[in-house]
Target: DNA repair protein RadA
Amino acid sequence: MAKKPSFACNDCGNITTKWSGRCEACGAWNSIAEDAGLSSSGPAKVGLGTVRGRAVQLTNLSTEEAPPPRTLSGLNELDRVLGGGLVPASATLVGGDPGIGKSTLLLQAAAQFANVGLKTIYVSGEESSAQIRMRALRLGLTDAPVQLAAETNLRDILTTLEIEKPQLAIIDSIQTMWSDSVGSAPGSVAQVRAAAHELTSFAKRVGMAVILVGHVTKDGQIAGPRVVEHMVDTVLYFEGERGHQFRILRAVKNRFGPSDEIGVFEMTGMGLAQVTNPSALFLSERGTPSPGSVVFAGVEGTRPVLVELQALVAPSPHSQPRRTVVGWDGGRLAMILAVLEARVGIPFTGLDVYLNVAGGMKITEPAADLAVAAALLSAREDAALPAETVVFGEISLSGALRPAPQTENRLKEAQKLGFTGALAPAGGKGVSVKGIALNQMSDLTAFVGDVFGA
Ligand code: TYD
Ligand code: MG
Model:
């Protein structure tokens, strides 16, 4: 019987027997392609092997068998996102848009790790060794004892790794690697998965750490990094706006550390520079307080970050007013607008609403709710918030304000950057930070009355 064709989504890796314009699993359009190397039928029946898979008692694991310690690269922003350095025999995926700076970051990381004594190999499937050298020259890294290889054939790479026995291998990028044992074209879901599987299992077997680079793809011809997320221990995304120099390395999954940490970098002519005080950077473009502008005291992982939120509210010429959000969740904005209307009686009907997080930062914290509400109201009422005031807190559907975690951290950061006041939900532990006048309110109506005198 002829083998049925199978199709895979290049975005999420979902397998179907039928082609369709839209992936049923993740909703992506035009992402489904035929994938010869995959089958949707269940796994073949597995016979018993001759060797037993060895199991050990948890209590019998002595500390000598514990894995060797993590290695710190000295790039603090990277080490923190990794959960406190690189774990031996671990697999890490670094995803990001093309051109965002992944190769730059990883070449710098390779040099740092090599400099602290880790035997490191950087395998590029996209650039020749001469091109990598040119980049290294530009980054001032030519002295670092990093091994370079320009190779795309998986078999050749594994052979090289077997001979060289590095402690860290960086594969740039996973989409360019191909295995001759898989029938489909390089870049397909099957190839990308096979390459990731081979490399991670090799890494686990020999105790080498591996970092895979994956481009986020837009057109669906090439599999995206999401199809290998489940195979690795740590997933990091490198984000940023092309027009801005800030870059954020964000942990979205980490078996060895907190998964919400961020590292902040700045793209310079000499590569990526660490940003040790992101709040100062994100607020650097802020002018005098104006209507619609609010400073949100946020926390990313363990680190407080102040960012400016900007809102614009204007009468809409359209029958369906616009709701445009950059750097925040559009659904969450709709919720805040609904709560303002239903609980406080402030409608936004007939008004266009634009919300922007300055500096190209993306905020995911619910504690941004109150800052967003403040920005929307400030824009709508054309009234600036009291100067040098930060805002944070979650808003519930009832209009009640919920205290945010790490209040003290947020206040301390605000104080460090010269702020003198904070608007926040009541409740939680009584925290006070010298130099910050903390104004606490228990619901949105009280907040609006207090701040906007409505
Ligand atoms: P790159 O690391 O090649 O991106 P990726 O691997 O994610 O595709 O970075 C590409 C961009 O970075 C490119 O537009 C030029 C810029 N860049 C600098 O601004 N300074 C530098 O020192 C380097 C090496 C690159
Ligand atoms: Mg690259």
Remarks:
- The mean pLDDT is 88.
- Residues 189-206 form the longest helix (18 residues).
- The CA atoms of residues 22 and 28 lie 6 Å apart.
